[in-house]
Amino acid sequence: MEHVNGSSQKEIRVWCDGCYDMVHFGHANSLRQAKALGHKLIVGIHNDADISKNKGPPVFTQEERYKMVRGIKWVDEVVEDAPYVTTLETLDKYDCDFCVHGDDITLTAEGVDTYHLVKKADRYKEVSRTAGVSTTDLVGRMLLMTRNHFKQGDQEYSVEKDGSSKLGQDHSARSPWTGCSQFLPTTQKIIQFSDGKPPKPTDKIVYVAGAFDLFHVGHLDFLEKAKSNGDYLIVGLHTDPVVNQYKGGNYPIMNLHERVLSVLACKYVNEVVIGAPYSVTKDLMEHFNVDLVCHGQTPIATDVGNIDPYAVPKQMGKFILIDSGNTITTEDIVERIIRHRLEFEDRNTKKEKKEIEVFEAMQRVKLAEKSG
């Protein structure tokens, strides 16, 4: 490696590991911060058996999780079937200088800190966890499936079929790491996630649009396929009310700002249009110099007035349907959660109980150190 001043420097290889179940922008932000501490980021991912034993059943299969992490723009290498407890041998095997994790805690089934070995050897660094999102929180949202779960305030109610109201999120959650908290979007966070590079004059610009709710492997494969049709991929993200209009029910599960960061973290995406119009207009096509508009195999709902949202690019001869070969949808993910509802509820409860016990023990130690 070369410094900007010409002096040589050893390549710093950073290790991260985890379950990376239901990969969201919180995972991506942690990996972004880890990558900034070195030159190459190597990410180890645990297998299904180890996760089930220590944490509870994962939502996604290990193959799906491996693919999702490979799709994050800051990741250089993925190590499959990584050990649940991070060892010095693992760091040495992949020539990593140190391990990076968020400022929460990960425990084995026996309650042991999975990073105790690398911490003791002083080969561990922490980055700030992204407040307001966790896999536990997202699973909780799907178990509740409330229309207003993304709205913040003193009270979050949804109206049930019988007319009664129910809290939109689990405010009884007391864990400092996975309890319900508000995600606060900022322009700085968007800038950190964005490439910030405009298209070159010679680039073929591809445009796609949708909800991209609960960003998953189906989305990833679709965006990879769309990007293969050009050089620069722009993703239009619809607002929450628009998504609710064409998806119905209690969608979207993630709000617009959360969906923006999830899509921006994908290595195939160059730019995002925040709150894109449902119908692709001539103005949009001209403004972004769009050469091609792509849509996947999912049904296309008409816009208000029974208008085809892709009428304009079709008339311009700039529209194609593509097949990513992956049929997974956001509804399929929700179905997985609902089907195993009791297992996931039990998982969330046990995880929170362990976290509270450890947090309270840490607080007692700090108190003792102060009084001593």
Give the N-terminus to C-terminus distance in angstroms.
Answer: 47 Å
**What is the radius of gyration?**
22 Å
Question: In total, how many beta strands?
Answer: 12
Largest sheet: 5 strands, parallel
Strand order of the largest sheet: 3-2-1-4-5
The low-confidence parts are 2-7, 146-181
CATH topology of one domain: Rossmann fold
Structural class: alpha/beta
- What are the secondary-structure elements, in order, as H or E? EHEHHEHEHEHEEHEHEHHEHEHEHH
Name of the top-level CATH class of one domain: Alpha Beta
Strand content: 5-15%
- Rounded mean pLDDT is 83
Written account of the structure:
By secondary structure, the protein is α/β, with parallel strands linked by helices. Among the domains are: 13-127, HUPs (Rossmann fold, 3-Layer(aba) Sandwich), CATH 3.40.50.620; 187-321, 3-Layer(aba) Sandwich (Rossmann fold). Helix content is 36%, strand content 15%. The protein has 14 helices and twelve strands. The strands form three sheets. A five-stranded parallel β-sheet has the order 3-2-1-4-5. The protein has a five-stranded parallel β-sheet with strand order 10-9-8-11-12. Strand 11 (292-295), helix 12 and strand 12 (319-321) form a beta-alpha-beta unit. Helix 6 packs across helix 14 (341-371). The longest helix has 31 residues, at 341-371. The protein is globular and about 75 Å long. It starts with 12 loop residues before the first strand and ends with a helix. The model is unreliable at 2-7 and 146-181 (pLDDT under 50). One of its GO terms (molecular function) is ethanolamine-phosphate cytidylyltransferase activity. It comes from Aedes aegypti (Yellowfever mosquito). Keywords: Lipid biosynthesis, Lipid metabolism, Nucleotidyltransferase, Phospholipid biosynthesis, Phospholipid metabolism, Transferase. Belongs to the cytidylyltransferase family.
